[in-house]
């Protein structure tokens, strides 16, 4: 059986403390009490396993907010709920800004008290779980920055660990956006060449003559405009690794020149006739079926044997749907930092829809979709409506997202949560126009301003 939840109640009014103690004990809490901030700190130090603290704001010597600050210096402090009089709504907002989990107005509504405490405890559990998940991603879910814990990705990582340290050429197969370049970087990082350079070139991005010059370099006067000698990427990769992306797009003439290099380990720059020797490991990637290209006479069979000593298949994202939640969390974190938007996560319905999407553009598409949703989102959690471009307006509308307003409220949502979200959503729908939003909400403009202030939304809306 679960052990009872432990609460510390802090109030300098003994009678109020007694009432709360009785109510909370009735609710199954193990209740500890303190009549001052100092006493509360002592209790906390003797009981570091507290699940939640409920403290009055107004107390002599150390007030509730001071107590919160003192406690929050300690690592993993319990969630803190503050009780305050209606007349001091401003201090409630201030307390929220400082990081308390929630506040309650006095006289207390005991039903609300129970919901708020429950929610604070649950949120803490969730944030702990999220922190564990993040640590897991760091510890085992990420391999050289490649996110994935699915069995297919575990196999890929194993193979990289095995072939990475060798000098074998590797050909990576995979649809566009599956992470082929990331994998090439991981292979380089796992090799002794990691102290040397990793040089990448996309064979589909340049015309044949430009690619030849880029790859092999040229000497002064090799062609009009070649005003001086230029080292090619092959030479720049000396002592390291050269990654040829989209190798299937290379012309037959260039393939032949590359094949010669792989056989002899020497090459000549464009316009030059003195062979140069370099020590380079070759990695390549393609999203084409090279066997078919060979049959069509578009690719040299001999070159494939040379570049595909080891073949590595990177599965499309739709075959590793179980990696999507980790990838989404990872991209939400990165994008919210990059664009300074405090987005905390994705609703479970939206996550489900993302997991079921076929992702023709694979991880790159997922990354772009999350970035867009984070940039455009108005709330702290991404819901189905934030992905309506991707999932289609209809799907998003037919299955209204969890949120609190559409569909059923989330478990543990309080009336305050619902009001706050309703205001946020209405404002977003009205493009931030407060008069319009107030009209839709059926309240006065002044009333709306008061609520924005109370929920700490005033700044973000101005
Ligand atoms: N497993 C992953 N974890 C984290 N990020 C990933 C993962 N896979 C791909 N990405 C990200 O997705 C984007 C595309 O990856 P990458 O360029 O490696 O794909 P690619 O297969 O080489 O694409 P293309 O075939 O178009 O060249 C990059 O921003 C990369 O960081």
UniProtKB/TrEMBL annotation:
Q: Which UniProt keywords apply?
A: Activator, ATP-binding, DNA-binding, Nucleotide-binding, Phosphoprotein, Transcription, Transcription regulation
Q: Which residues carry this modification: 4-aspartylphosphate?
A: 56
Domain Response regulatory, residue spans: 6-121
Among InterPro entries, the record links this protein to:
AAA+_ATPase (IPR003593), AAA_lid_NorR (IPR058031), CheY-like_superfamily (IPR011006), Homeodomain-like_sf (IPR009057), HTH_Fis (IPR002197), P-loop_NTPase (IPR027417), Sig_transdc_resp-reg_receiver (IPR001789), Sigma_54_int (IPR002078)
Pfam families, per this entry?
AAA_lid_14, HTH_8, Response_reg, Sigma54_activat
The processes (GO biological process) annotated in the record are: phosphorelay signal transduction system; regulation of DNA-templated transcription
Domain spans labelled Sigma-54 factor interaction: 146-375
Question: What PROSITE patterns does this protein's entry cite?
Answer: RESPONSE_REGULATORY, SIGMA54_INTERACT_1, SIGMA54_INTERACT_2, SIGMA54_INTERACT_3, SIGMA54_INTERACT_4
Q: Which SUPFAM superfamilies match?
A: CheY-like (SSF52172), Homeodomain-like (SSF46689), P-loop containing nucleoside triphosphate hydrolases (SSF52540)
Q: Name one GO molecular function term.
A: ATP binding
- Gene3D superfamilies with a match to the protein in the record: 1.10.8.60, 3.40.50.2300, Homeodomain-like, P-loop containing nucleotide triphosphate hydrolases
Keyword Phosphoprotein in record: yes
Q: Does the keyword Transport apply?
A: no
Q: Which PANTHER family match?
A: PTS-DEPENDENT DIHYDROXYACETONE KINASE OPERON REGULATORY PROTEIN-RELATED, TRANSCRIPTIONAL REGULATORY PROTEIN
Protein name (record): Acetoacetate metabolism regulatory protein AtoC
């Amino acid at each position: 059986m679960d052990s009872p939840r432990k609460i510390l109640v802090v109030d300098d009014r003994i009678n109020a403390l007694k009432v709360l103690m009785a109510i909370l004990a009735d609710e199954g809490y193990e209740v500890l009490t303190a009549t001052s901030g100092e006493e509360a700190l002592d209790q906390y130090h003797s009981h570091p396993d507290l699940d939640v603290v409920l403290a009055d704001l107004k107390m002599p010597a150390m007030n509730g907010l001071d107590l919160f600050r003192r406690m929050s210096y300690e690592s993993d402090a319990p969630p803190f709920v503050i009780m305050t009089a209606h007349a001091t709504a401003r201090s409630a907002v201030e307390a929220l800004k400082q990081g308390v989990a929630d506040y309650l107005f006095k006289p207390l509504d005991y039903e609300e008290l129970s919901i708020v405490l429950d929610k604070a405890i649950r949120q803490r559990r969730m944030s702990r779980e999220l922190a564990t998940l993040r640590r897991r991603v760091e510890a085992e879910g990420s391999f050289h920055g490649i996110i994935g814990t699915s069995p297919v990705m575990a196999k890929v990582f194993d193979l990289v660990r095995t072939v990475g340290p060798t000098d074998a050429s590797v050909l990576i197969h995979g649809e566009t956006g599956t992470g082929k370049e990331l994998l090439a970087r991981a292979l380089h990082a796992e090799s002794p060449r990691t102290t040397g350079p990793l040089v990448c070139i996309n064979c589909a991005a340049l015309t044949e003559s430009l690619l030849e010059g880029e790859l092999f370099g040229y000497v002064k006067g090799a062609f009009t405009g070649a005003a001086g000698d230029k080292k090619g990427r092959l030479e720049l990769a000396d002592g390291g690794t050269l990654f040829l992306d989209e190798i299937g797009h290379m012309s037959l003439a260039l393939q032949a020149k590359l094949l010669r290099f792989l056989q002899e380990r020497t090459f000549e720059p464009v316009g030059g006739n003195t062979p140069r020797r370099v020590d380079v490991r070759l990695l390549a990637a393609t999203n084409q079926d090279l066997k078919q290209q060979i049959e069509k006479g578009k690719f040299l069979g001999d070159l494939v044997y040379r570049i595909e000593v080891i073949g590595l298949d990177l599965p499309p994202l739709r075959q590793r749907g179980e990696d999507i939640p980790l990838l989404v969390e990872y991209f939400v974190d990165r994008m919210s930092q990059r664009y300074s938007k405090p987005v905390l996560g994705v609703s479970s319905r939206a996550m489900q829809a993302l997991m079921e999407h076929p992702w023709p553009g694979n991880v790159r598409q997922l990354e772009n979709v999350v970035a867009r949703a984070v940039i455009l989102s108005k709330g702290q959690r991404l819901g189905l409506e934030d992905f309506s471009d991707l999932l289609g307006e209809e799907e998003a509308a037919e299955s209204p997202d969890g949120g609190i307003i559409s569909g059923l409220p989330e478990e543990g949502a309080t009336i305050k949560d619902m009001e706050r979200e309703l205001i946020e959503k209405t404002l977003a729908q009205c493009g931030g126009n407060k008069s319009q939003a107030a009209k839709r909400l059926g309240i006065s403009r002044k009333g709306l301003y008061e609520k924005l202030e109370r929920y700490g939304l005033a700044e973000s809306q101005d």
